[in-house]
Amino acid sequence: MTAPLTPQQLAQYDEDGFLIRRGLFDAEETGRLRETAHADQALSAHAFARRDGEGGSVKLALWNHPDDSIYGWFARCRRMADAAEQILRDEPYHYHTKMIMKDAQTGGAWAWHQDYGYWYHNGMLWPNVVSVFIAVDPATRENGCLQVVRGSHQLGRIEHLKVDDQVGADRDRVEEILKRLELIYVEMEPGDAVFFHGNLLHRSDQNRSIHPRWSMVCCYNAKSNSPYCEGPHPQYTPLSRVGDAAVKEADVQQPTAEDPAKWHSGRESTAQRIPK
Question: Which CATH architecture has domain 7-273?
Answer without folding.
Answer: Sandwich (2.60)
